[in-house]
Amino acid sequence: MTPPGRTLILDLLSTLRRGTMPVAALVEAGALFGIPSNTVRVALARLLAAGQVARDERGRYRLGAGAEPVERRVRSWRDLDRAARAWDGSWLAVHHGASPAGRRRSDGRGRERALRLLGFRALVPGLSLRPNNLRSDVHAVRDELHALGLPAGDLVAELRGLDDTTAARARALWPVARLRAAYRQSLRELAASEKRLGALPAEQAMVESFLLGRRIIRELVLDPLLPDVIFPPDDRDALVDAVRAYDRLGRAAWAGFLKRFDVPHIGAPLETHRIAV
To answer: Which domain holds residue 228?
Structure first.
C-alpha cells in the first residue's frame, strides 16, 4: 500500500541520525511511490507548520521536536527483548472517565494512540490496562503516555487485587493467536523478499524493502509485550532477528539514492514507519 505523502516524509526523515534531507530527495522518493511532487511539497509545508519537521539554513529538512515522542517509540523495536521484566501479576491502569462537554477531539485521538503504542486494552469503558511487566516503572510509563498524547487529566496507576474472574477477563484482552499467526506470516514474507531483492531493479528493491519493512516493524512497535504466561515471546523474537537481517538489505537498496543527495548518517528506511491509530 502506498504511504501518504506525510507518512513518507516522516519515514524518510526518521532515518537520519544526524544531517538533513533536501526537498529534491523527498520529491524523488515520493515519485517512486506514485506520490505527485505537489502532494509532497504541500505535506512538507503542513508538517513544518505543525512542528513535525524542522528546516535548517540551507532549506534541508529533519524531524522536528513534535515528532520525537513517537519516533523514540518507533526506534524501540530493536530492543524489545530487553523492554520487559518478570510479571508479578499486577497491572498498569489508565482511567479517563467520561469526556466532559467541549473536550477536544484531539484528546481522544492522543489517548488512543498513546494507549495502543504501549499495549493497553480497555477492560471496561473508561479503564484501560496492561500487565505491569514493562522494564520502565509506573512513573516513566506515565511520562511516556503523556508525551505520546494521553490527556493530562487521565489517571495512570498500578492496579492490584483483581478478583479471579476479572483477572482472567483481563488476560484475554489481547488476541494472542492472531499475533502468533501474523508474526509467522511476516517471517515467511521476509524470507521470500530476501530471495527477490538482489534480482530486482534498484528502484523496485527500494520500494519493496520500504513497504514490507515498515509494515512488519509496525507490528513489532505495536506488540503489547505481554508476559510469557500470556504470550511466549518466541515468535516475536524470531521476527525481530529476521528484521535485523532484512535491515541490512534495505540499507543497501537505499544507499545509492541517499548518497546522490548527500544524506549522511543514514539508517535503513525500513527501520521507520508512522503509527496510524
So the answer is: 175-253
